[in-house]
Write a structure and sequence with these properties.
CATH class: Alpha Beta
Number of strands: 13
Largest sheet: 9 strands, mixed
Number of domains: 1
CATH architecture: 3-Layer(aba) Sandwich
Radius of gyration: 18 Å
Shape: globular
C-alpha cells in the first residue's frame, strides 16, 4: 500500500477535535484549514527550486523560487472546496481547477458533471478531497485529468480507508497519496470507520453529525 501518512503531533491533536461529533461547522472549517496547511508542507516538500538573487535591507544574497511551470489545485466537489482556501492561502500563486462527480445510481460508478481546468498541462496538480473512502471518485478524477493531458498529479486527503488507497494504487500507481490519517475500514454504506462522518455536510453545516 503506497500512501504517506503525515504523523505529526499537531495534526494528531487537530484530527481528534475534527473527528468529535460535537465540533461545530465553524470550528470544523478552521481545523480543516489548519490541517490542510500542515499536510501541504509534506505534499510539496520535493517540489524543485532554483536560486534567485534577493536584496535584504543589508546586502544581496541568494534566495529561492519554485522551479516548476505552475501549480494547480483541484478540489473534487463539493467537500474538496473545504481544502481550497487553505491551500491558496499558502500558495497564492497557484491556479484552481474544479471537478464535479456524482454517482450513477444504477452502476454506482462516478460520472462527471463538471470539469474546468487551467490550460498549463505541465503544472504540478494537487487533487484535494477530505475523504478517500472507496476510491472511486479519486481514481475517476485522476483518470479525467490524465485524459485531458495532465500527468504530474498527487492526491491530498484528510482521512483514507485502505480500500480507497488500494483502488488508486492499482489504477494510478505513480500518483502519490498524502493523508492525515489512515483509518480501519469502510462500513456497509461506504463510510470510513472510525472516520469523521460526511465531510461535506460537516464543512457546510447541511447535516449535524
Amino acid at each position: 500500500m503506497q500512501i504517506t501518512v503525515v504523523n505529526h503531533p499537531l495534526i494528531k491533536e487537530k484530527m481528534t477535535r475534527l473527528r468529535d461529533k460535537n465540533t461545530k461547522p465553524s470550528e470544523f472549517r478552521a481545523l480543516l484549514d489548519q490541517i490542510a496547511q500542515l499536510l501541504l508542507f509534506e505534499v510539496t516538500k520535493d517540489f524543485p527550486v532554483k536560486e534567485v538573487p534577493v536584496e535584504t535591507p543589508l546586502q544581496k544574497t541568494t534566495g529561492y523560487a519554485l522551479d516548476i511551470s505552475s501549480i494547480t489545485v483541484v478540489p473534487i466537489l463539493r467537500a474538496g472546496l473545504g481544502f481550497l482556501d487553505a491551500v491558496l492561502d499558502l500558495i497564492p500563486e497557484a491556479n484552481a481547477g474544479h471537478i464535479g462527480l456524482c454517482r450513477d445510481e444504477e452502476t454506482l460508478k462516478p460520472i462527471e458533471y463538471y470539469c474546468k481546468m487551467p490550460n498549463d498541462k505541465n503544472a504540478q496538480v494537487i487533487v484535494i478531497d477530505p475523504m478517500l473512502a472507496t476510491g472511486g471518485s479519486g481514481a475517476a478524477a485522476i483518470t479525467m485529468l490524465k485524459e485531458k493531458g495532465y500527468n504530474n498529479i498527487r492526491f491530498m486527503c484528510l482521512v483514507a480507508a485502505p480500500e480507497g488507497v488500494e483502488v488508486i494504487n492499482k489504477a494510478h500507481p505513480e500518483v502519490k497519496i498524502f493523508a492525515a490519517a489512515l483509518d480501519d475500514k469502510l462500513n456497509e454504506h461506504g463510510y470510513i470507520l472510525p472516520g469523521l462522518g460526511d465531510a461535506g455536510d460537516r464543512v457546510f453545516g447541511t447535516v449535524v453529525k
